Amino acid sequence: MNYVYYISLGSNLGDRQAYLDQAILGLKQQAGIISVEASTWLETPPWGNTEQGRFLNGVAKVVSSLAPEAMLQGMQQLEQAAGRQRIIHWGPRTLDLDIVWAETEGGAPLTVATEALIIPHPYLWDRTFVLIPLKELYPHFTFRGQTIGTRIAELEA
């Protein structure tokens, strides 16, 4: 079975674009990855812990035969290769990768709730820095009975 993952990418340390571009390349090179399509990068203020530099964010649509836990492991390896250190919750980082939404290739939503992974991401519907690039790749996305365009407008109001 193949899955479609929507992965948020973010960086606010060093050469932010190089970290994101390298992550996309790294995803494309992983075994079990069929295709990777990236949104445009979006510069945004920090969310949560706001005492840090601006982020470069985006979303990647990844079609893969990897089960969610295996996909997560591959993403964490890419974060480690980029020097990611988990010191401060929502703190500065070279690279942050999160599965924000997943579904089967047929379009059935995927739900995962383990200690290591929650899909859909708990803050998916609250973060414009995820929703704006997600809308670029998935313009007809709806969640909780609301279209992505309506939710973005609501958050930006």
Describe the structure.
It is a single chain. The protein has 157 residues and is of the alpha+beta class. It has one domain (3-156): 7,8-Dihydro-6-hydroxymethylpterin-pyrophosphokinase HPPK (Alpha-Beta Plaits), CATH 3.30.70.560. It has four helices and nine strands. It has helices at residues 16-29, 68-81, 128-137, 148-156, and strands at residues 3-11, 33-38, 42-44, 55-64, 96-104, 112-113, 118-119, 142-143, 146-147. Strands 1, 2, 3, 4 and 5 form a five-stranded antiparallel sheet that branches. A two-stranded antiparallel ribbon has the order 6-7. A two-stranded antiparallel sheet has the order 8-9. A hairpin with a 4-residue loop joins strand 6 (112-113) and strand 7 (118-119). The longest helix has 14 residues, at 16-29. The radius of gyration is 15 Å and the shape is globular.
